[in-house]
Design a protein that fits this description.
Chains A, B: GO terms for molecular function: histone H3K14 deacetylase activity, hydrolytic mechanism. The structure is a homodimer of 696-residue chains. Chain A is α/β, with parallel strands linked by helices. Helices cover 33% and strands 13% of the residues of chain A. The interface between A and B is large, with 153 and 154 residues. Strand 14 of chain A pairs antiparallel with strand 9 of chain B, so a sheet runs across the interface.
Chain lengths: 696, 696
Amino acid sequence: MAKSSEESDSIMEENSDWSADDAASSSGLTVASLATGLCYDIRMRYHCEVRPTADVHPEDPRRIYYIYKEICRAGLVEDPEIAASSKPLAPHPLQRIDVRDATEEEVQLVHTDEHFKFVESTRNLPDETLILLEESRDSIYFNRLTFASALLSAGGAIETCLAVATRKVKNAIAVIRPPGHHAEHDKTMGFCLFNNVSIAAKVCQRQLGEMCRKIMIIDWDVHHGNGIQKAFYDDPNVLYISIHVYADGKFYPGGKEGNWDYVGEGAGIGKNLNIPWPSQGMGDGDYMFAFQQLIMPIATEFDPDLVIVASGFDAAAGDELGGCFVTPACYAHMTHMLMTLANGKVAVCLEGGYNFRSISKSALAVTKTLMGEPPARLTATTASNPAVQIVRRVMAAQSKYWRCMYPKAPAQEGLFTDRFHDVIRQYQAKQLYDSYKLTSLWIYRATISKSFENQVLASPNYDKAVPLIVIFHDPPEMMGIHHPITNKLEPHNCWMADVVKEYIGWAIQNNYAIVDVNIPKHLTVDTGIGRYEEEDGDRPTQTEELAGYLWDNYLEPNEATHIFFIGIGDAFYGVANLLINRDSIYQRINSVISFVAENPVRAVASPTQTWLSRWYKDNSLVFVSHVHGLWHNTENRRKPSKRYGRLLQSPKTGLNEMLMHHKTEVCGWIETRVNTRGSSEEGDEDAVEAESKEAV
Amino acid sequence: MAKSSEESDSIMEENSDWSADDAASSSGLTVASLATGLCYDIRMRYHCEVRPTADVHPEDPRRIYYIYKEICRAGLVEDPEIAASSKPLAPHPLQRIDVRDATEEEVQLVHTDEHFKFVESTRNLPDETLILLEESRDSIYFNRLTFASALLSAGGAIETCLAVATRKVKNAIAVIRPPGHHAEHDKTMGFCLFNNVSIAAKVCQRQLGEMCRKIMIIDWDVHHGNGIQKAFYDDPNVLYISIHVYADGKFYPGGKEGNWDYVGEGAGIGKNLNIPWPSQGMGDGDYMFAFQQLIMPIATEFDPDLVIVASGFDAAAGDELGGCFVTPACYAHMTHMLMTLANGKVAVCLEGGYNFRSISKSALAVTKTLMGEPPARLTATTASNPAVQIVRRVMAAQSKYWRCMYPKAPAQEGLFTDRFHDVIRQYQAKQLYDSYKLTSLWIYRATISKSFENQVLASPNYDKAVPLIVIFHDPPEMMGIHHPITNKLEPHNCWMADVVKEYIGWAIQNNYAIVDVNIPKHLTVDTGIGRYEEEDGDRPTQTEELAGYLWDNYLEPNEATHIFFIGIGDAFYGVANLLINRDSIYQRINSVISFVAENPVRAVASPTQTWLSRWYKDNSLVFVSHVHGLWHNTENRRKPSKRYGRLLQSPKTGLNEMLMHHKTEVCGWIETRVNTRGSSEEGDEDAVEAESKEAV
């Protein structure tokens, strides 16, 4: 660093003020010197099925015992009966937090009086009644000690959170059951009676006031914590984050409440955050992606006074109900990240998790992390595409409420009225008219989607006795660079790629006729602005209908000497189906050229036209991107069926790149065929095979 | 969770296999039981200026002493001479790591033989020669103990990294000097002689082999670590991440090497990551944003065997050279995040930092975090816009190399040839012709940018004796939803908002004439695809030229009964300058309506046309978005000057929203003026003032 005397002067001045005497105001490690807390009590095992069968209930009383035992055997706690050695192996063992009964008043911070009374009533009911109750309610069982266990579980959560919030311990884990996160204000649900975590959060808020005003509850149980969400849905001081399997509302507890668009309401809007996995099977990479990109930035911005983890371990690898693959190392990483918040005040409370080994290993990893052990390394951290997609969708939705979230979702939706496929097509029409005098063919719209208006352009000689090239293509590719902050697109930062016009130019130059058909990816006008739309499911049928209509009205009746079909992308579907479903059309067609990047390679074959697939194999060029699954599927190692045509591996990836790369090849093939007498002979194919690698 | 007997069976089966006996294989806290290491030696203070002046050099020998003293006084180390009490306050005090001389062979892992020999030679030079050397080199001083100190500093870094990598300590901090990260293979630079961190990394790789193959070096010194970047630029096993002030290459060490597009080369491509702050003044929110969104995801994916921090504390609040505002709490957070990596193997080595208080407090916070103390809470975590912009730019650049980075930058650049402002304008021209018979006015292009082709459209009666409305507007707004994974834009997911056409429709219906002028934001064709482009700087001049051209050729000579100018967005600039620079034009104009969302409100006044601003105040409507700075600037509390026209606060934010909202108002105002005899009277303004709030 170049030193200027002015800079140095001010540094010296600044530094001359400094004396080590005013340093070191806070000495020692005030928090790290405290122990991690552990809450466990054998009496929470008393809640169990009155009449156990071979069909053991997954919410098995032994769950908490095995976790506790695992922690003892790792030498983290002093319990001579279980610990491997009577002396713990950790220099600073876990500190016991005693459970107690939650009071009626505490439970009623979340639950109705009726609900409390109902659970209380079960302690005096005969076995038969208890079994009947089990059948009339959603996923719960009772015995006469259920009430007692539920009170202890809630009380354990309360004491654990209070001990952490008041810094009696550094942080803590509560190995408690029955779980709580599904229990709603007025009902038991999903193995849950009282909502332990919600009750504990409300007690901390009430009892500690400003010192514990903002609470973040992070729920990584594989199921959505509907009860917690409901308890704080309009509370601006409780940020509830749940990461769970949603599966379109079909995964327990079901319904739409677990979806990403449930963001809180009233004063609590933006303080509810669901990350709804589209399916089971999620793993470390997915959870890490969600934590790093979404959960931690928002949590840091929220800046809670206390973090409570509703810690189900049923997303753990090995849990069959959850069907996910989160490793103990990943639980450790998530815990470690949370420990940056609230000056380390993290209280972990057990919720679900049904595989003894998985929950024990996971809980041990979490406990060690709380005690200061660094997380083990993760072997795989790649997020899957479905996970990235949903996390980024949640980010966009939450960007409205959190300054740290980008990109900001676009606003002013009502103003955006013109879809770009129309804008582009009009531009193309004008360009193609100006350059080549292509004009629109009239489409009778009653039978064909009106989205095809303007989509079929033809050169003036389309019905003359010249070679005719019919191109079915997907819309041009767009590229747009969003403003990095506002996320706006601006016309001068957006671009279009449209290589088809190069082909049209070549054809016109050769005096061939052209029919250019653009197949929009959405065929009907709708108003779903603001979310990414998938392709229209109805497109193939509509495309086929259009192809048939064109054939009947404009192609079949004309005098073309040769007809070539070029199908680009998924728009080829229409061509393929025309060949398959219209008898003998193929005899009128010279050949078919098709480009396939991502979509499936279409078979052209028909039970009623036995020669079709042979004809197709002999009279087609099918360029398939080298990254296409076709080339990597071991089942295709054998020579592919002739129904797929003459398959050629393209060294390029995208449709436009492929079109550009193979233009000379395609044009040469067409010119050779035009110049060869007859159309069904194999002609001169050497030119083609020299350049592209044919599948064998 | 609804229990099906099938599920329960498999759980039972799974769980019956489980016995606690095979659990707890790894007992105790193997890493957390180790101490944090501290490397410090008083002999590194011997390197100092031979002839100190009042002008003290910022790289002051006392730097390391004050840091060490601060750590002692916090009770974290046993040193009876300095520690507050003879017994450390931490239950597990810091463990000493002894420095040693780096060997010649070790230094030469990074530096040339000549370079080593040169530094060695300084130990025998007379004072005068040493001072001369100082003047001939970039920011460095020498004395006869410089070489000894530099060897100890490099040796300290080596021993510290080895101790961490071989798990002799949990993690460590090395309080060493002279610093190293600017030193290149063949030169001293920026207070640095030997590149301590680079040497240590190479020694670890060589000495520990596979156990320490992948090393991440994170450099949060406020200056770019050019020496480290160079040492590993083609090394795939060393990920170098530097977060520093860049200021367009004007901040030390200067040049382009610190920019985001230096991503490594050869096998090391993608393993160099620069986060170049555009200016000083960055703070906690900016650093947290970079860490959370960019650094930690990539670091996690890299999965290093060892993390070395090139830890300058000159981005700390209080450091005048750095000019940034990072707090000790933020350094603690960054350290805590890094501790998730490499199973906690983090070695922090001091680089720059020149304010004694700032570096001591920062180093103490880092040390406490390494020892297990949770980071203090951050009061502010909002990233500034410039920071977000650069971080997101780096993310896009790095998305090519890291699976975890989204959005992926668009590929296939060469194919994207058509800019959308052309596509859109052609569409608009077609629409406006079809609906209202607007056609293009011929623009003589030699004097005016050819980007204005097609941008001026007029109704057939533009030269007739009717009221004429001339609209200058920015291009329509676009909205596009990227595919969440591929980041592609597709035409059916992109939309356009264009409210101007509503105004044109109204005018045509009233039989008024219309001239519609679209001002593209880029006036010349260029090929800067792939990065977000700012508006063209030349635009105002070109717009003014166009406005003058239109006035001379199409507006002034015609017979319009009334001329109204509407200026929308920044396109209004052309109108304002026309009024200012052309004498007496304003007398021909009935009035001006302007809409301002983000850009400055333009003054219309001229020293040569004294009545202009009065006229403007009386004959204008200037709608300014309610979020515009104008309304929030205290200097504007007093009545704004009449040169800004009649200012009206709009309740809307964006231009299109404002246009929509005030349409009735604007149309009413124009109609009233058309129906009132004479154009300079104030007319009936009540209708306007009833709806919008005029500035007072």
